[in-house]
Design goal:
- 32% of the residues lie in helices and 14% in strands.
- By secondary structure, it is α/β, with parallel strands linked by helices.
- The chain has 2 domains: 2-13 and 66-181, Rossmann fold, CATH 3.40.50; 14-64, no CATH class.
- Helix 3 (71-80) packs parallel to helix 6 (169-181).
- The protein is globular and about 50 Å long.
- The N and C termini lie close together (12 Å).
- The structure holds magnesium ion (MG).
- The site of magnesium ion (MG) has 7 residues, from loops.
Length: 182
Amino acid sequence: MTILVDMDDTIEQLLRAWIRGVNEKYGRNAVYEDFKTWDVSAPYPGLTKEQVYDIILQPGFWRTVEPIPGAAEGLRLLMEAGHRIYIVTATPFQSVSEKMTDLLFKYFPFLTWEQVIITANKQLIRGDVLIDDGVHNLEGGDYVKILMTAPHNLSYNAEANGMIRVHSWAEIVEVIKGLEED
Ligand SMILES: [Mg+2]
């Protein structure tokens, strides 16, 4: 199968690093569970969207983002099982170089640039499966939809919208195995 895999908060922990960055710079104490919507500036009253979103554009930021435990292992397993893996990420263009060098190829060295697709319109990409924490990337797509749980999608009814909710890479590997048998 061709398996499309989101990057931010699907294989690495962008949100946690982002929160640390904003909290440190502006003396705030927001916690992960506060981020109930896609808008990262929402739990920061008094800060502008620009102030909050500028954090991820700062040089060195992507070095502070850590992988999700089990993601590298899971991706390797899927590749060894013969699946084609593509990382599909919507990211500010300013971030691309550091994000690839300091994060993707650092923690996932078995992936190559030929396996990376940068786009804000994931529904245009053809694949059998998309694994993503953003429901807006899954809705309307012509692929099996696997929703990675995140605080901003907790109240979303994945099942009713034709998605499979997962909480870990171990679960993702299991779901893919199930699809292989179909
Ligand atoms: Mg994401």
